[in-house]
């Protein structure tokens, strides 16, 4: 097993089992064995091939061709072992409702999961509180309490703590929400996004007004000019990266189980829309490990998709859920989210620049292949084990539709930590830099892109001086002595135009059941109009949401809550 120095560091710090004195008591090999064995336990509910599947799972994981989300790596085999990364909890408009959910969120956080919440049901600031005769403090004030609780809980937990906070664009407190993170001290444990409705987009297009609604009464609470609110959104996002947008009506049109509820939020990094009390287990295929001799090994990829789908479906059966309501919901829809990492690496190995037309075409081809293969695998499981229990009334409950074991099969996660473990580029992001200093836990490491290093040696343009320059600059644009073809191939995130970032997100979204995690990177000199254009383009191109980040912008929260920071 080939693990990089960084991978070993992260595994030792957070993933390998420790004894009570904090000494590491398992090797990475044993860790993969623990995961394979405990997930394959689920096979015993369905047949007598647990040993066979344990071996298949072990082989897939230990070769780093596929990894499940962090909670599975950390907690598999433990008792209780909470294995899912993504949750959404509803927040009701009452004191017991708000604080019961906070308690439940604390349990999820403690178990290594991240939670998304919509605060849209909370009555607005200065609205009446009948029981006390007082006035309400509004959703943003309660988000601050959730944020503080996260600070306290994360100190005892395994991870940094990650939340998504959503407010509908038609909530009366929308402007306060849009501006809240301009103060860097506020909501540092939250990514925030606006739930954008079609009605709002229509008003924005027509340069008109739209209606605000008081969620307590369901009645109108005034009107705002769509363009003015958009200006505020763009100003905040330009300055801090928040808020992102979630196109909520689009999410609900793609809801596979409308009879079981509707979407009001996603998980913390935005890739997984979920119903209230729903959870999802994610896993990512390492695309770089599926290139053989300069071409994609689709046979191997297809086999790995099938094993990964089975692994994720098994994970649901051996999971210890933090709440009975979550267990009921997850076991009702059995959502899994298989995605990819190492996409930028795959493109380098195939000699295709990230922002080339061929790359967008290939993105569709690869993701379509994975979606189809994952649905086939889910159908095969349904034949063995039955369709997901909420199948009746789902969009699949119709003639000529596949009979699936899982209401969704595909999601593209950020893979903040997984990509470090697998030593590949993260998710579907371009390379961020070719050389950088990185703080992994407490030590500083200098990293040079391994493919670039190899190519430089093979093609004879390697020299110590040249590499020092690459290290200083992080990209190749102004470095002399490097063939232009190589410069084009290794373009980094900030050299790629925002519209090409969005095009890539849209290409993957087309064949992804859930959503796609992607950061639309903008150079520091980008203007507010560039942010506005990116937000509108994401809507136009069929993305389910968008997050931008302007390089060097002040930011309280990282989009990715990686364990390596
Ligand atoms: P990983 O690589 O560790 O598996 P990702 O970066 O792919 O994680 O994130 C996937 C999801 O895992 C996020 O959208 C979120 O739901 C959850 N998550 C990520 N980081 C954290 C964290 N620090 N605390 C809690 N949940 C997290």
List the total number of helices. Answer: 20
* Relative strand content: 15-25%
Distance between the termini: 25 Å
- Poorly predicted ranges: 556-565
Task: Name the hetero compounds present.
Answer: adenosine-5'-diphosphate
User: Can you identify the CATH class of the domain at 86-266?
Assistant: Alpha Beta
CATH-defined architecture of the domain at 86-266? Alpha-Beta Barrel
Q: Looking at the structure, what is the overall shape?
A: globular
Biggest β-sheet: count, sense, barrel? 9 strands, mixed
Helix content: 40-55%
User: Strand pairing plus helix content: what structural class?
Assistant: alpha/beta
CATH topology type of the domain at 86-266: Anaerobic Ribonucleotide-triphosphate Reductase Large Chain
- The whole-number mean of residue pLDDT values reads 95
Q: Give the total of beta strands.
A: 21
**For the CA atoms, what is the radius of gyration?**
23 Å
Cofactor: adenosylcob(III)alamin
Domain Ribonucleotide reductase large subunit N-terminal: 1-79
InterPro entries: RdRp_reductase_class-2 (IPR050862), RNR_lg_C (IPR000788), RNR_lsu_N (IPR013509), RNR_NrdJ/NrdZ (IPR013344), RNR_R1-su_N (IPR008926)
Keywords: ATP-binding, Cobalamin, Cobalt, Deoxyribonucleotide synthesis, Disulfide bond, DNA synthesis, Nucleotide-binding, Oxidoreductase
